[in-house]
Amino acid sequence: MVYCNDCKQKTGATSRCEMVEAPQILILHLKRFDSDYNTRSHFKSVRCVEVPCELQLEGKTYKLYGMVNHKDSIRGGHYTATVLSEDNTWYECDDSHVSEVKHQLFAKARTFSSRTVYLLTYRVAQTQRPHDDPNNQGASHSLNRDLKDPEMQDRIRTTEQDASVNVGKQLKDSSEQRVGEETKTEKEEQRVTPPQRRHHGLINQGATCYLNSVLQVLFMTTEIHHRLDPQRQTDLQLREIFEGLKERTCRTQNITTTFGIQTVHQQCDAAEYLEKILHQISTEASEVFRGQLRDTTKCSKDHIINEETKTFWTLPLSLKDTSDTTYSVESSFKTTFQTKTYYSGNMMYCNDCKQKTGATSRCEMVKAPQILILLLKRFEFDYNTRSHFKSDRCVEVPCELQLENKTYKLYGMVNHMGSIRGGHYTATVLSEDNTWYECDDSHVSEVRKI
């Protein structure tokens, strides 16, 4: 009960919130980020929300025209916008990448469901007459008083029917001519332009963008497709996803179960899960990524101090070896195989010489892999601050790399946006028709410039 000053005592009460002045633009904030007072921590709600295309508020109708979405966890993530253009088409705006929404919202229903929507923007709809929108049941209230006269309604109806017949005939003749011209143009284009295959994305289960980006790159690695063993669980799951991506947007629940991923809202490292996939697939499939390096250290008298041969799937490149502002992948790759010299205070002990001596070390590619994966070590550990950090250093990426007698051509990249505490992974891949595509979970768009 609530204390009432007039009654001078606590009494039963009612409360009500009233919209005194309705805005022209109505913005709804879905409180996905909240605080749990039991655990004394913040959390993000990924509850599925049913979003209506219209809202009724007293005498006004609000129509949805924009949404801000948030993907991933409270520790970090990625924002996008979904907006309705003037031509009544919905577009997905992901920073510099804008693409038309494949399945237009509200095409089949008055609502749609979303686990990522965060802000909703509605605007007051303009009043329409009944014949402008047959589905608008409340439009009868906007009729002018004079239009209620039966004789006037009969005149209007007769005039509209006559006009619609004439206009319909003109539109039919015009459309037939236009269809004929378009058909002719399409046939000419088909003779010149080869058909393009449509690319599809992978649905993010919460924070599984790290997995989606790796799977998109592996999908474009056609060298492993025929090597996958259907008798192995991981190979079978990959084959199903690759076949599905040729036709539709796919889910990844089966493969996350195979990998033992229990918390899909916890972001992991893309490079780590790439290594995990290569460990679990058949040897025949992973063989295309397998290379061998030999590290050899010799003293000044050519005695071998140490020699080690190791197998690798990814070749790590440090981003902190040079002082240049822009990091060159090509230069760093060549530096990996250059001879290093140790002298003065860095001399090494040689068992054959029985003393410390000057030395040289060299890394040699004993076996060059068919598919070369370079890992740019953006996540490092600072021993001074005893903390991890992420390097946002600008990287110069070459389209080709030379290694002895082999030329490697770039066809895929995994990108990370955000900080070390959280962020978002995407993939940029080169398709068979020599077109680059940006794969952002379920959204795939053509890269205009690369």
Q: What this model shows, in words?
A:
This protein is α+β, with helices and mostly antiparallel strands. Strands 3, 7, 8, 9, 10, 11 and 13 form a 7-stranded antiparallel beta sheet that branches. The chain has a 4-stranded antiparallel beta sheet with strand order 15-14-21-18, with no helix packed on it. The chain starts with a strand and ends with a strand. It has helices at 150-192, 209-220, 233-245, 253-258, 270-280, 283-286, 329-336, and strands spanning 2-4, 9-11, 25-29, 33-36, 41-44, 49-52, 54-57, 60-71, 78-84, 90-94, 97-100, 111-114, 117-124, 291-299, 304-312, 314-318, 327-328, 340-342, 348-350, 355-357, 359-367, 373-377, 379-382, 387-390, 395-396, 400-403, 406-409, 412-419, 422-430, 436-440, 443-446. The radius of gyration is 32 Å and the shape is elongated. Residues 127-148, 155-172, 174-179 and 181-196 have low confidence and may be disordered. Helices cover 22% and strands 35% of the residues. A hairpin with a 5-residue loop joins strand 29 (422-430) and strand 30. The chain contains 7 helices and 31 strands.
